[in-house]
């Protein structure tokens, strides 16, 4: 079964809001084994909606729309639906009661405009809306289904979860899709693809591989589709195992794991703590660690020592060491990490020192030169990164590389 | 001129990522006076891309695509373009040099797969990519334009801003649209609209006002359209001046200003420094400040004192004060800010202490209870925030409120 999503609304076409409805629906449908073939965004225009509907119906079995069901004159989705399904509007008593109830609860008088919310296409099955005035509308034609929903996210979500997904599950007997995403770090897309080429070429035809690169990491998504969910799960596990064995040192997590979340679990498991001693990452490392709920169990804190005098005061960095090697050096970053363990009473300390840019570079140490280090008590490892010239990306990539290094070091214990 | 956006990628159709590229491009195009007719999301499939391209070309004059230009076999946008524009792939020497350069800068060997990034449709004009390996491709057919860009946001953005928008501006001779966005903080949309109602009603017909609310702030965008750019600029300036005079205390910036950027300029102007003493914001305040290029001129550093023992060690918070009032209290947050000025040798210090959640709340201090403070040498101000139950939103909103408070305090000097 293929589905399409049509999101209706001017605010999406002028970029005022991001289309989170479409990604949310797509995710739910995929989890339910329904592949989404296309997402289309069109304006609140009867002809545009009609065109999008008829194109989507020509390709797919299920079309979900959001938006344009409000009471004002720029909401024309119902008219387009009547046109497309060759039906007319009739007053639905249940919806009228729902809308009246909602208004009386809020001590508001029911206006004529709001009464019109109870007018629905005669051919439609009504999905009642307990969170707002616009009902959902379920229409069928030649074995294909269209469900129109309001654009307000929580009203739409209640309809998808409460009605549409259960209904689809009943109807779908023989077609499943399951996914598994393997998260890698420390190797680029092209190198990765060379290492796993042979395995990739030998994937069974019902399993597809997608590369999803993002700054500093590559996610590998395996998708299996077929008639028996259990068989798909088994086949996916087998392929995942093979893949892992080819690149064990690069795999750090699965599906929706985050590096900071994985690190948190490992630290809790081992009863260890961490702190950060940051220069060029400017607090972003600490932010990543503390974005995990419960991180206060293993995160002591951070010294963001932007000024060299704070490196001396809180991290005991000898001024002569900075004079001799510069703040961006192996010597200084290793001392920051080692001393950070002591001044912050933590088992691990991550440290960074670099030139985030765009200014501050020299011939010897150009913008993007970043030293990172991870200390475990009295042992320390460090690495030199050569990043680019964009400040925000350099901060993000240095942070990611340092987190990845911490994860490795935790695993070595 | 109508435009369409085609974003290509399986990850959008399974809801793994939200389509921020489409909304960003839509916003830029609208600012440039180009209306977006449709956004389409399709998979990395040659036939799907071809279909989407030909449908978009039948409706619109400009088609921008993102995604599917990577080196791996699931990236097929270039093949679809060759098909659609009836052209073949040729090696582009400039692109090859760019890609080689990028790899040598990173001390990586150039693989055959990456060399293939230099294969481009013969009919295409190449938009060089200084941030990644995939070039942008500008193709024309029957007076209509298609530009294919990589899906990595910052690579795409550099092409839109550096090449596409200037090129579109050149092509439009007699129709201009200019914008000015006024950034306000500390007042809700409905109150704002009451204060400025009369001014709004008297705007000349060629100037439009849009309210763009986002968490913690309201942006007011003025758009003027007409045939003479200079006249529009003058009229906009006049209206902006009138608007400012109505709400001087709420306006903190313009267009793409950020609060941290505005603060940076003020601190440089006044020759003052700042530090942060963070608990619940966990380094995010320091990150915001250091995300501004040149912040090392006025940012000393941050103590992220997650563990109470670090609050005592680095911020001289008496343990008895914490025992008496709790770490989340006016007394503690004010002491953190005041002592932070001293221990970090800064003129200002921002401090936060709160319960970000989801755990850790009590009946007296539920999740979302956050104290913030700003000290200037030996004077301090503080405020209690009642936020929600989402950790990431609480951290972001507490940070924004603290930055806004710092800005006010700097202006008082």
Keywords:
homodimer; Molybdenum Cofactor Biosythetic Enzyme, Chain A; 3 domains; Alpha-Beta Plaits; six-stranded mixed β-sheet; Maf protein; alpha/beta; about 425 residues; about 40% helix; five-stranded mixed β-sheet
Describe this entry's structure for a reader.
With 413 residues, chain A is an alpha/beta fold. The first copy, chain A, folds into 3 domains: 2-171, Molybdenum Cofactor Biosythetic Enzyme, Chain A (3-Layer(aba) Sandwich); 176-254, Alpha-Beta Plaits, CATH 3.30.70.2860; 259-412, Maf protein (Alpha-Beta Complex). The first copy, chain A, contains 16 helices and 17 strands. In chain A, the strands form 4 sheets. Chain A has a 6-stranded mixed beta sheet, sandwiched between helices. In chain A, helix 3 (46-59) packs across helix 4 (77-84) and helix 11 runs parallel beside helix 16 (391-412). The longest helix of chain A has 22 residues, at 391-412. The first copy, chain A, is elongated, with a radius of gyration of 28 Å. Chains A and B meet through helix 2, strand 2, helix 3, helix 8 and strand 10 of A and helix 1, helix 2, strand 2, helix 3 and helix 12 of B.
